[in-house]
């Protein structure tokens, strides 16, 4: 379906999948409501979206970990529109790769707040603006980490498994409304993901992608757009998207540079 003139909400829109999704929906001539904590970075993405052809772009500093911020964001949006067609729940990420025995509370809290509770509170805030029987979408960003656990990933894999459960519960709760709910679950993607996971250690982050042609944020954004543009009677419940080089989380083909 054609999305021109429709309203799209994206969390975590200042970088990575969120920024790439914003630009992909901008090229479809959508109105964009972009949220992220980093207002300066978000304004840069907003400017790119305007240049890409967005019908309008509204950037808001929002921390999905804070209920009052999420609720005011959705409340303020009502002055502009009463019908949001796509909600992209993208905010989240990983903090640390430590085994449970030595992991830090602050990392756990950050992951639970953004990936899990943030997803719930953003969805609760925006559901009233999703029109019934018009092909609206709640598109959640999960991960292959929600499918298979790995060492050091107890909390991250846990919150991404929770994201899958939230998606499935919403799919059931909203059945009969015409609102579509699905999750897109990427594998290795070269974004700021590893830089954040390793608290800014660029060398360690670069090693994750060494010798691998990883997914780019645009690959995931393109898949999101494909999901969102299916006809209203088609719901993509779940899409797993990985680099060709990554057959499974632990099975990654790396080219040697010698
Ligand atoms: C990111 C993918 O496999 O590194 O969600 O956890 S993974």
Keywords:
globular, 7-stranded parallel beta sheet, two-stranded antiparallel sheet, 258 residues, 9 strands, Rossmann fold, alpha/beta
What features would you describe in this structure?
The protein is an alpha/beta fold. It has a single domain (7-252), classed as NAD(P)-binding Rossmann-like Domain (Rossmann fold), CATH 3.40.50. The chain contains 8 helices and 9 strands. The strands form 2 sheets. Strands 3-2-1-4-5-6-7 form a 7-stranded parallel beta sheet, sandwiched between helices. It has a two-stranded antiparallel ribbon with strand order 8-9. The longest helix is centred in the middle third of the chain and has 22 residues, at 105-126. The mean pLDDT is 97. The protein binds 2-hydroxyethylsulfonic acid (8X3).
